TrEMBL record:
<dbReference type="GO" id="GO:0015768">
    <property type="term" value="P:maltose transport"/>
</dbReference>
<feature type="signal peptide">
    <location>
        <begin position="1"/>
        <end position="22"/>
    </location>
</feature>
<dbReference type="GO" id="GO:1901982">
    <property type="term" value="F:maltose binding"/>
</dbReference>
<dbReference type="GO" id="GO:0055052">
    <property type="term" value="C:ATP-binding cassette (ABC) transporter complex, substrate-binding subunit-containing"/>
</dbReference>
<dbReference type="GO" id="GO:0042956">
    <property type="term" value="P:maltodextrin transmembrane transport"/>
</dbReference>
<dbReference type="InterPro" id="IPR006059">
    <property type="entry name" value="SBP"/>
</dbReference>
<dbReference type="Pfam" id="PF01547">
    <property type="entry name" value="SBP_bac_1"/>
</dbReference>
<keyword id="KW-0732">Signal</keyword>
<keyword id="KW-0813">Transport</keyword>
<comment type="similarity">
    <text>Belongs to the bacterial solute-binding protein 1 family.</text>
</comment>
<protein>
    <submittedName>
        <fullName>Sugar ABC transporter substrate-binding protein</fullName>
    </submittedName>
</protein>
Amino acid sequence: MRRTARGIAVLAAATLALSVAACGDGDKAAEEQPKVDPAALTAELTWWDTSDPQNEGPAFKELIAKFNQTYPNVKINYQSVPFGEAQNKFKTAAQAKTGAPDILRAEVAWVPEFASLGYLYALDGSELLSDSADFLETPLASNKYDGKTYGVPQVTDSLALMYNKELLSKAGVSAPPKTWAELKTASQAVKEKAGAEGVYLNPAGYFLLPFMYGEGGDLVDTEGKKIVVNSAQNAAGLKIAKDLIDSGAAAKPSANDSYGTMMTLFKEQKVAMIINGPWEVNNVKSAPDFGGLENLGIAPVPAGSARAGGPVGGHNYVIWSGMPQEKVDAAVAFVKFMSSAESQAFLSEKLGLLPTRSSAYQVDAVKNNAVVAAFQAVNEAAVGRPWIPEAGQFFGPLDQLATEVLIQKKDPQAALDAVAKKYKAEVVPGYGL
């Protein structure tokens, strides 16, 4: 049975009430509380930040310092937790009711899962959602489960084609490729004329989705309760990715730390094109050998025979339901500050991240940001993911598939059939094949 924490949180200076329900008791009505001076709010909170500790972490630490200018007595214990470990680490701690962070930066697909397990506060009725119309619809939707809202969007993103303008120009490629066939041609031209690899494909499940989506495929049909990951469309998409590598148009991916290898080669101008997201813009910008943002091109991922689009991604702020009640008001204050339009504009200017509030796009630093403008076109083409509790478990099997197909040369259809059986056995057993 789904559990939510009982209690009311009142935020200093804003009277923020968290509407939460005890299991089986229904929602407990919030009572009016007097406003309190922010300086009088005292608490110690732990925040697990799952962003890149080198490229993004310093900017989040700057925001914490800004927060403490208004809330000097709320101590934030900032902990950088590797993204790949955070999902299971949080579930283990929350289940044990000890060691979980008060606040978590959660990937969008994790929120429905954590909410279904009773690990998150429901925020309905709180001041955190009083201006929910300002949040973009798709990022906000990832925080909903069973009619309630369990988080607020921090950042939204999707995968794009990121390219080296100088290398494409040397190869005689005047515009970024719009189809996978054009990408193959451009990649071969880069190898022949610019002395670099044309494209590097990261062999990970998330990064294969643009190829699957491009042929009209998907992972599951939530309305029909059916597993469709092993469709002919997905097999066709994987064959396109596999052909890029087998033909030599794409660099042979590394079996170890392929993502890190991809980024190193791109920053050192040894590969002209990659598929990646806005979280790496600051990393590329600061690379001494790349040439700054002036040399960075950003475009929607190339299209297959059906469409062009990467997966909708991003992160949300969530609050652990097992937190001591006396700390909740401070946690709400912190999340409200971090998810504000001002904070989002700050992160956009510093890191090139995409805000999730409409009002943030009206701030000059965001409005005039070329990177943000480029990624807006990318996000408009993004394909929505299923916001079901099991969605965060789709990628383990997909990562194994990516290694098998792109590195070990396994047949795409056979690999997809194995993933479908794993989904049926371990992820969505109630879905049909």
